[in-house]
Design goal:
Length: 440
């Protein structure tokens, strides 16, 4: 089976990229500083870096806690329409101005919030900010723009089901979060997107675009005084409101092993498992992150490289409030592959990790963290995520220290605590699986 193993050489090259990247991307990590301040009820996090690019992430708090089955997808539909034209920037003018400056506006719906982000060259920040805020605060919301945004979102929803790896993740996610607010789809469903009217969008904008729902994160070559002036003249005109997100129910302890099979005529079989995991606020988060990095490496070595049972296999850890981890693989021999996978999971739960393996994994994880910081957009997004889903944005700057503190005992403890009661989705030939294997 084809693929490229993760070798020491690749990691050394990646480390060199971390050293070189700040000089090639226009981002300097030296001498940067982060501050937070409040402007008329809007919390702002500003990270000053010497960068040719400036990024802004505006978080609308709440995510699926603000919606119901009938209006799933209303926020990406609202803001996806808004970026197609505003009061002062009709569609053609808006697109031509963004293209002229190389500025991008993105809408990213997540479980816990929706992000509307801006990325621009720092020399065009003033002009880009004017467009960004006009789009958010004074969207045209005309029928043509609504229909264009609606069809784009529906196409994405359909595409997610057409792609086997996305589809199987959705199957596993829906099984695991079946009686939880996360069962709702922030990106919407085809039926919900079709049911949302232009009038619904205008009403939602009027009631939900309020200061108490917002968090603003800016990363770039920007002064605090400049941001303060910009916020006062734009978002400062919004009503404060009294938004308080609803508490999410606990998932851990409420799940047993599960399996949902979807019969699909495809060349190979896709498997994805979802399991409960510690969140960013919990001290177990970083031991869990290191644990699944170790597990990913072991699975690649044992299931793919040595035995050739899979095309791909990996685990990863999410960063949502009611957190989870996933374990995914594609294989023509699902039962044989799952047997080896569960042996490796058991090994992590019952044997202390060797000190050298732990040290190497921590070093690689820290390396990946610094590599991700080469993008101002990633930094803006992550500062906001840690602020809303963690113990504060400061924790994002302490990741290295938290990873270095992880011990072999920590790894065994979190593996025993969390790597169980996995809910699996299976996409492919049902005749090729032993269902008893999945009740781990």
């Amino acid at each position: 089976m084809r693929g490229k193993p993760i070798t020491l050489l690749v990691r050394l090259i990646t480390l060199l990229m971390v050293i070189i990247l700040p000089f090639t991307s226009g981002v300097s990590t030296a001498g940067c500083d982060v501050s937070e301040f409040d402007i008329d009820g809007l919390k702002v996090i500003l990270k000053k870096v010497d960068s040719e690019v400036t990024a802004v992430s505006l978080f609308f708090k709440g995510g699926v806690r603000n919606i119901d089955p009938s209006n799933q997808g209303i926020e990406p539909l609202l803001f996806g329409t808004a970026k197609r034209g505003s009061e002062n920037y009709p569609m053609d003018l808006l697109h031509s101005e963004l293209a002229r400056m190389g500025t991008s506006i993105f809408v990213i719906p997540k479980m816990d919030f929706t992000i509307v982000s801006l990325r621009c060259l720092s020399r065009y920040f003033d002009e880009s900010w004017d467009i960004f805020t006009d789009v958010l605060l004074h969207p045209a919301l005309d029928e043509k723009g609504v229909e264009l945004a609606r069809q784009e979102l529906i196409a994405r929803v359909r595409r997610q089901k057409d792609l086997p790896d996305s589809h199987v993740r959705m199957v596993a996610w829906d099984l695991f979060y079946r009686d939880h607010p996360y069962a709702l789809k922030p990106q919407g469903t085809e039926s919900s997107l079709l049911s949302i009217s232009t009038a619904d969008l205008k009403e939602y904008h009027k009631n939900q675009v309020i200061l108490s729902r917002l968090l603003l994160v800016v990363v770039g070559k920007v002064d605090q005084s400049d941001i303060e002036d910009k916020v006062v003249s734009s978002f400062g005109k919004l009503p404060r409101g009294e938004y308080r997100p609803k508490l999410l129910p606990e998932v851990k302890g409420n799940r047993m092993p599960g399996l949902k099979v979807v019969d699909r005529d495809i060349p190979t079989n896709y498997i994805c498992g979802v399991y409960s995991a510690p969140g960013l606020k919990e001290k177990e988060y970083y031991p869990m992150q290191i644990a699944i990095n170790i597990l990913s490496n072991r699975l690649f070595e044992e299931v793919r490289t040595k035995r050739g049972l899979v095309y791909q296999v990996y685990t990863s850890l999410d960063k949502v409030s009611s957190n989870d981890g996933i374990l995914c693989l594609t294989t023509q021999e699902p039962s044989a592959a799952m047997e080896v996978i569960f042996l490796e999971v058991g090994r992590l739960r019952n044997e202390l990790v060797e000190a050298k393996v732990l040290q190497d994994t921590i070093a690689i994880s820290i390396n990946d963290y610094y590599l991700s910081k080469g993008s101002v957009s990633t930094q803006a997004s992550m500062l906001g995520r840690y602020e809303l889903n963690g113990s504060g944005w400061e924790d994002y700057l302490r990741i290295e220290d938290k990873m270095k503190a992880v011990t072999p005992e920590d790894i065994m403890e979190v593996a025993r605590e969390y790597l169980e009661n996995i809910n699996f989705g299976f996409l492919g030939d049902p005749g090729k699986i032993d269902r008893e294997l999945f009740l781990f």
